[in-house]
């Protein structure tokens, strides 16, 4: 499965002096990178690929990491659940690129 998720801290000391949320977001990205699962981080979402339980465990741990910075956390999550398919995070894009050339 592939999951695209975004975490938004609110309240507490989650907002940096410049209005950003870099410390809280960095703590979530660190969890994702240390998970060992295939991932990609963009300016709006983090993509994560793996089996259901392992992916959801990382999403929960990332949410908990953000919650260490803020009393409230918003989570947006979209999942592509397709059992038996691996490397779809890159495979989907490669198939589209082949059609464009």
Briefly summarize what is shown.
The chain contains 3 helices and 4 strands; from the N terminus they run E-H-E-E-H-E-H.
Descriptive report:
The protein has 101 residues and is α+β, with helices and mostly antiparallel strands. It has one domain: Alpha-Beta Plaits (2-Layer Sandwich), CATH 3.30.70. Helix content is 42%, strand content 25%.
- Helix percentage: 40-55%
User: How is the largest sheet built, in terms of strand order?
Assistant: 2-3-1-4
Label the CATH architecture: 2-Layer Sandwich
Identify low-pLDDT runs.
none
Topology:
Blueprint: E1 2-10, H1 22-34, E2 39-41, E3 46-49, H2 52-67, E4 72-80, H3 88-100
Antiparallel strand pairs: 1-3, 1-4, 2-3
Question: Which terms would index this structure?
Answer:
single chain; 101 residues; four-stranded antiparallel beta sheet; 4 strands; elongated
């Amino acid at each position: 499965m592939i999951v695209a998720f975004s975490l938004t801290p609110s309240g507490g000391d989650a907002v940096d002096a410049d209005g950003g949320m870099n410390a809280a977001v960095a703590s979530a990205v660190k969890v994702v990178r240390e998970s060992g699962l295939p991932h990609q981080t963009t300016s709006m979402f983090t993509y994560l690929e793996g089996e259901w339980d392992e992916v959801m465990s990382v999403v929960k741990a990332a949410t908990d990491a953000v919650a260490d910075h803020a009393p409230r956390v918003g989570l947006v999550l979209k999942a592509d659940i397709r059992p038996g398919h691996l490397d779809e995070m890159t495979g989907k894009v490669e198939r589209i690129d082949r059609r464009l050339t």
